[in-house]
Amino acid sequence: MFYKCPMLLYLNKHGPQEEKEIHPIIKKRHKTSVPFLSPEFVKSEVKKTSNLIKKGNDIINQKWMSFNKLSTKIDKLKKIKENSVFGPYAYEPIFTRGNIPLRKPLVMEGVFSAYICSKFQDIDLNYFILQREKEREKFVISDEIDILLSDLPRIKKILEDNIDISPDYTRGCRVCEWRIYCRNLAKETSDLTLISGIGKRIKKELRSISITNVKDLAEADITKISSDVASKRELTYFKLQATAIIEKKDIIRNKVSFPKSKIELFVDIEGSSHHNFIWIIGCFIRDEDKAEYRSFLANSPKEEEKMIISFYEFLSEFKDKFIIYHWSSAEPQYFKQLTEKYNLSSNDLSNVTKNSFDLFPIFKENIILPLYSYTLKEVANWLGFQWHDPLSDGATSIVLFDKWYIERNKKALQKAISYNSDDCRALIIIKDYLIKNLSSD
C-alpha cells in the first residue's frame, strides 16, 4: 500500500473512514475495511506456520511469517534444499498474481515478504518467485532490499501518525476510494500535484527548493531551477498553469490554424473494458448552423464489425469533405484497432486519419486554463457546458453500459447514450471557444 501511495496507507490507518466513496467502476457493494490485523491474530497464524514447517511439508499455502514486529502473508511456500533454523531444508516464497503487471507495489511486496521469509528461517534468501498462470519468474531482490530497508522507518512513522504527509493527486487517483477527500485536501493546501504534469518526483524536487504550493510556483523564477527537476519547456508550462490558477483566467500563448470544412463531425467513442469491445461511436454532425446527434451501436461483440462498417459508410456520404474533431489520441487509435481487427479497407482508415483534428493538445501548447486537469468534462464545465447528469463520467458510462449488456436495462443504455451525446456536444463548445480565442485566420 505504501508503494502504491503513502497517502493511501495513511488514510486507511488514520483517515475519516466515512469520507471514503466507492467509484462506480469498482465493483464492490461496500467500502473496504481498514486492512490492519491485531498482533494476537498474527502471532497465532505465525505459530501455525512454524508447526507446518517443522513437519517439513513440501508445499505450505497462505501462511504468515514474522520478524521484528514485521509480518507478511505468503501465497505459497515451497520446500528447497537449504539449511535453516528448522533443519536441513527451507522454504522459498511464491506469489500467484495472474496477469497483473509487474509494477513497483507488487515488486516491493515480494521484496518485503522475501526479506521476512529470510529472517524467519535464518537463511540468505535474495529472491522471490512470481507465478503467473503457466509462467514462473524468479525475481532477485539485491537492489530493492536497500530501498525497502530505507523506507521502513517512514512506513513506521505513517502508521504511528508521526509524519507530515500530503496527497499526491495524480491520474491514478480517479478510482481511489479517497479521491474526493484527497482532491479537496489538495485544493485546500494548493498542492503542487494539482498542476498537470507534476508528479511525486517533481513535487519532491520543487519542495526541496522551497516551492511548496501553486502560489510559490506562480511566483518562482524558473531560470534558477535546475534542468534536473524538469525541462525548461515543462517548467514554463508549470509556471503558466500555476499563474492561470492563481489569477483565475485563461492565458493565450499562440494562435492556431484550424482546418476549414462545411461539415464538422464531433466524435466520441466508448468501449466496454470489462467485455473488451467498442460499443458506441457517437457523432454530432454540424452543417453550418444545423446540428444533429447520431450514434452507432454495438450491443455485443458480434455487432462491433457492423458498427464500424456503418460508420465508414456514413462518412462516405460526405465525399472526403468533413473534419472529425475529437479529444485526445484515443479515437484515432480505436479506428485503427477496429480497421485492423476486421481487415477493413485502409482507405477508410486513411479517410478518418487525414480529416481528424485533436483538440486536447492545444491546451498544452497554445492556451492555459485555470484548471487542475484537462479532462473533457473539466474544460467544458469551465466554459459553461453542463452534462445532463453532472455526476456522470467515463467510468460511470462503462457501468451503465454493463447494466444494459448484462441485465438488458434499457434505462441504463439510454443514460449511457445520453452521456456520450453530451461528450460530443462538449466538443462543439470547446472547438468554438478555441476558434474565437486562438484562430489565426
What is the topology?
Layout: H1 6-14, H2 39-55, E1 59-67, E2 70-80, E3 90-96, H3 104-121, E4 127-132, E5 135-140, H4 144-159, H5 179-189, H6 200-208, H7 214-219, H8 232-247, E6 251-252, E7 263-272, E8 277-287, E9 290-297, H9 304-316, E10 323-326, H10 330-341, H11 346-354, E11 356-358, H12 362-365, E12 367-368, H13 376-382, H14 394-407, H15 410-438
Parallel strand pairs: 3-4, 7-10, 10-11
Antiparallel strand pairs: 1-2, 2-3, 4-5, 6-12, 7-8, 8-9
Helix pairs in contact: 10-11, 13-15, 14-15
Summarize the structure.
With 441 residues, this protein is an alpha/beta fold.
Please describe what this structure looks like.
With 441 residues, the chain is of the alpha/beta class. The protein has 3 domains: 6-159, no CATH class; 190-249, DNA polymerase, domain 1; 263-438, Nucleotidyltransferase, domain 5 (2-Layer Sandwich). 43% of the residues lie in helices and 18% in strands. It has helices at 6-14, 39-55, 104-121, 144-159, 179-189, 200-208, 214-219, 232-247, 304-316, 330-341, 346-354, 362-365, 376-382, 394-407, 410-438; strands at 59-67, 70-80, 90-96, 127-132, 135-140, 251-252, 263-272, 277-287, 290-297, 323-326, 356-358, 367-368. A 5-stranded mixed beta sheet has the order 1-2-3-4-5. Strands 9-8-7-10-11 form a 5-stranded mixed beta sheet. It has a two-stranded antiparallel sheet with strand order 6-12. Helix 3 (104-121) links the parallel strand 3 and strand 4 (127-132). Helix 10 runs antiparallel to helix 11 (346-354), helix 13 (376-382) crosses helix 15 and helix 14 (394-407) runs antiparallel to helix 15. The longest helix is centred in the last third of the chain and has 29 residues, at 410-438. It is globular and about 85 Å long. The chain starts with 5 loop residues before the first helix and ends with a helix.
